[in-house]
Amino acid sequence: MAAAVAAAVALKFDGKTVVVTGSGTGIGQAIAKRFAEAGANIVIMGRRKEPLDQTAQILNDIIKKAGSKGRVATFPGVDVSDEEGINSMFEGVKAQFGKVDIIVNNAGVSGPVKTFTNASVKEFRECVAIHLTGTFWTAASGLKAMEKGGKVITISTFFSEENRYEQRPYRFRTPYTASQGAKNRLAECLAWELAERGIRSIATNPGPVHSDRIYKTVYPKAAAEFLRVGGYPGLSPTEIEVVTAKALPYLGDADDVVAKACRDAATEIATKRGKSDEETIKALSATVAGALAKMQEIAEKIQGNTSKMIVDGEFLSQDEVAEMVMSLSDERMSKLINGRVIPNDRVFYPVKPIVGTGVDILPGSELKGKVIVLTTTSSAPKDIDRVKKVASIAQVAGAKMVIVLYKNPADEAHFKEFHSHAIDFMSEDAVRRIFNTARTHFGQVDAVVHFTGDYDYNAAFSAMPRKQWDALVENYVYMPGMIVKEAVIAMAPAGALEEPARFKGTKGTIVIVGPDAPVGKKISGLLRARADVFRGALRPYTATVNQELGDVLGSNIKLHLVLAGNSEGAEPNADRLHSSILSLAAGAALKKNEAIFYVDEARA
Questions:
Q1: 0.85 exceeded by the pTM?
Q2: Active-site residue among 165, 170, 215, 349?
């Protein structure tokens, strides 16, 4: 009798079908193994076939040992950001198992581990596509195969989570933090949308986890970026990038392997210098080896500092994260915490409070002579009017104005009294050209103000077509990221990308005016949750950019985020909004910690 009870407890997910993304290795594999031990059918998927085949063998052995009826289905070559690939996978899962009971959104990549000014557009987009769009589409597509009692568990990161007046930055990880912040808010939103269907959505931030991604990628690359920015004797910043690409991946390997990698890096550097004789290569090899050792030293310091923020000094193991996901998937537990982001990281990560409710209003004379570029991706009458009003006030105050609109030349008719352009904000070349044009015709750019406009808060994310989602990500993640990056580059002297020391002391302000809060007498929790998804992307992005600008690059350029509307559903106060935006553009908060402003939450 006791044995039968024990078996029933052990196989508590018997008959359930669990889809785990990114499950060929690491945390995903650990989660899949834990569910296999509990009797579930396991669906594993990922981009590479070999690790999935190996994982499938491990899972089948576990199922056999557990004595369950569980089965394993493998879907290799599936990228979570691939619309058709994910759709096809869930069709196959439904045909094989009838339905999906649990989806674990685990797939992720490190993304670029470097200052945002130095990350390519391609790297930025790939990171967001996997972490944010992959999470969204896996959930949205998988819901078609779910019934009452289903659960969506999303694994995020503790670095992007926020408290009332705080927002955690994560230096060198801007696309990652923007994605994770939006993921947390998306998980909350899905819980509201799916409540009537009896499907639950929970997110968890496990914090630092023992994994190759941290030890072999994130920490070493962060260390390399510190060295690229701070400098290393005998190597230029671009040469340190060669060391990062050629030698860093072999850190921790056998001595002869590391030595060869150092020589390969030294040979490339010597060739580019135009002096590739044996003596030069030998000397450079020693320099490269020294730089590599310094990177390892910094990486170990980063790890040690992070450990000190944990009460017992221990990172979680992958098995402990798997246990956490199992607990969140439990029927009773999921009911208790539905719609929450569970901070399981245990990390005490002190940060400066950067959220404010009011801006010190400066006199209009502070704008005189400043070159201000106003950009917007919205053609909505409300947003056109808002941009035009801000531009008019600034122009009267003596500022030199450039208006940049998104694609639609017809919008220029609203700005005949200004210097205006219509461009594609998704084109890096187009955005860089427009800032160069502004600088050539009007002088050094002092401030950039970007208006994102709003989106339809009545549209359900859980039923949203992929094309509509992609447009939202472009507008609220990709394009603000592009504009901020190119604005900072335009404010810095030529050559700053190659020599980051040139960013030191640079001046300027950038203001993102994000989507407004919902307006109305009775705002439901559902509408608030939808409105916060992309506001939730912009907040950690702002915090991370400012940390990199100030603490890493030593720049005096600052990024501000303004979020209009308030928690009571009142219409934004137009005069307060306009004066707040222009005061920030004039430098009102350059010397303050606050960077994120809820201007309509201030007391009148």
A1: yes
A2: 165
